[in-house]
Amino acid sequence: MRTQVAIIGGGPAGLLLGQLLHRYGIDNVIFERKDRDYILARIRAGVLEQGTVGLLEQVGVAERLHHDGLIHHGIELAFNGARHRIDMTQATGKTVTVYGQTEVTRDLMDARIKAGLTTVYDAGDVSLHDFASGQPRVRYVKDGTTHEMACDFIAGCDGFHGVSRQSVKPDALKLFERVYPFGWLGLLSETPPVSPELIYNNHERGFALCSMRSAHRSRYYLQCKLDDHVDNWPDDKFWEELKRRLDQEAVDHLVTGPSIEKSIAPLRSFVAEPMRFGRLFLAGDAAHIVPPTGAKGLNLAASDVHYLSVALREFYADKSSAGIDDYSRRALSRVWKAERFSWWMTSMLHRFPGTDEFSSRIQIAELNYLIESDAAKMSLSENYVGLPY
Ligand code: FAD
Ligand code: DHB
C-alpha cells in the first residue's frame, strides 16, 4: 500500500490538511486512533478567525458554517462590575465566526467521505519509520492485523499526546513550556446565550467566559483548580458560581438549564521546535499548545496546515523543495505570536494563586488601558481576529 502523504490524526488539523491536499491533487490517507463518533463527541473550540473560514471555503465545506455560524464584530471585557465592548471590526475591518469545532470536524469528515478519500479509524499502535532519511512508512494495527503503508511524507497531526512528536529523537527537539496553576471548567447547555457577544470576565473569584454555539446553545467556562473534578460541580453549583463572577446585568439576563456536557481542561503553553524532521512535519497541537483564552488553538492548526499544503503543492507541482524547507520557520513565526497573545490574555484575566494585590492592580490597569486607548484596542483586535498569513 502506498500514498503520497500519510496523515497521522483525524482531528481538525489532519482533516483540513487532507482536503487541502486533495484540492491540489495530492493523494493522502488519514490514520486515526479513535472512531468518528468519539471525535465528534469532543467539545472544544468555538471561535474561527476569518483566515480559518477562508480555508474552509477554499475546500468547499463552508455551506453549513455560513448558514449556522454567528458573525461577531466585537467582544466584551468585564471587570470591577462593569462591561466594556471592544469593537474589533471598527479596529480591523474583520470579524470572527462562532461555529463549534465539532461542526467544523463533521463538515470536513463528510467532505472527505464524499471525495472518496481513505481514513483508517481505530488504527492501533501507529508507528512512524524512516522519515529522517529515505522512504517513510507508517505501520498500524487494524482488526488485529498489522499493516504498513509507504509514503513520500508524513504529517503528524495527532495532537499533544500523539505518537508523531514522540517519534522524533529527543535531542532533535527543543521544547518550551509553561503550565498554569488552574484549569477551565466548561459547561454546554441548551439555553440562549446571556449576551449576543462573548464576555471575558476578570473577577476576584477567578476568570469566567460567556460563549455560545448558537442562538439556543451556550458555552460557559469557569477558572477552576487544577486538581478539580467535574463531579465536584453539579449544575446548580456551576450556575451559582458563574453568577458570582458576572456583572449584575448579565446575572439578570442569564438563563440556566441542565448541562449537556461538562469537562475540565488544564491550561498550558507549549512549543516544540522545529516542526520538520526530514520527511515528517508536525502541525497543530502535535507541535504546540496555547491556553484557550483568546481561542487560538484550532486557528493555529488551520494556519499550520495551510503553510504545509502550499509547501507540498510546490514540491509536487513545481518540483521545488523551497516551501517544505521553509515550513517550520514560517509556521513557528505565526505560532509564537499566538503563543504570546494567548499567554497575555491568560495573564490579564485569571487569578493566579498566591499573587498579591499589586498583581491585581496591574491587571486592572492593563484592562483600563485597553478600553481607553485606541492603539491598545487595535492591538487586541488584530490578534483576536487573527494575524495574517
Ligand atoms: P486534535 O484535535 O487533538 O486532534 C488530534 C487527533 O489525533 C485526535 O483525533 C486523536 O484521536 C488523534 N491521535 C492521537 N494520537 C494518535 C495516534 N497515536 N495515532 C493516530 N491518531 C492519533 N481551542 C480553542 O481555541 N478554544 C477552546 O475552547 C479549546 N478547548 C479545548 C479543550 C480541550 C480539552 C482540548 C484538549 C483542546 C481545546 N482547544 C481549544 C484547543 C483546540 O481544540 C485544539 O487546538 C485543536 O483541536 C487542534 O487540532 P489538532 O487536529 O491539531 O489536534
Ligand atoms: C470559546 C473558547 C475560548 O477559548 C474562547 O476564547 C472563546 C470561546 C468557546 O469554546 O466558545
UniProtKB/TrEMBL annotation:
In alphabetical order, the GO MF annotations are:
4-hydroxybenzoate 3-monooxygenase activity; FAD binding
Q: What is this protein called?
A: 4-hydroxybenzoate 3-monooxygenase
Question: Which Pfam families does its entry note?
Answer: FAD_binding_3 (PF01494)
Keyword annotations of the record: FAD, Flavoprotein, Monooxygenase, Oxidoreductase
Output one GO BP term.
benzoate catabolic process
- The FAD-binding domain covers 2-342
- InterPro entries, alphabetically? FAD-bd, FAD/NAD-bd_sf, HB_mOase, RIFMO-like
Q: Which species is this record about?
A: Afipia broomeae ATCC 49717
Q: Which SUPFAM superfamilies match?
A: FAD-linked reductases, C-terminal domain, FAD/NAD(P)-binding domain
